Amino acid sequence: MLLRRCRNRTGMDKEKVKGLAERAHEAARLARSGASDLEAASARVRYAVEDARAAGFGVGEDLSVTDRHKAATAAERAARQEQARIRTRSSLETPTVTASPTWRRRPEQPRWTATRARRTAIPTMAATRCGG
Known about the structure:
- Residues 1-20, 81-132 are annotated as: Disordered.
- The protein is mainly α.
- The chain has one domain (2-128).
- Helix content is 65%, strand content 5%.
- It contains four helices and two strands; from the N terminus they run αββααα.
- Strands 1-2 form a two-stranded antiparallel sheet.
- Helix 1 (2-54) runs antiparallel to helix 2.
């Protein structure tokens, strides 16, 4: 009887830990994906800044684009201003990173403390205190 209770308790602890581990793996996967998205967006901004500078525009710390070229005509000035506007907009466009809600803790779930998680994460400890 005591052995059966110990096995049941250990099995329940194992299932709890398994669920928590799956959620942790999902959160890690989302974090890696988000980091990859941010790195790609950062690279696009760097390339846009390089392109703008190569075209004779100045790029500020706030990613504002200014024309450093002296335009001979009003039409040329208007065209350069439009280029600067387009370059500014393209350098600021970044993808929106959204996380899947599956990894979030649902409100009805208990908040796990380090001590409680540690106790349930080691099934052998449950086997030593089977009654409680």
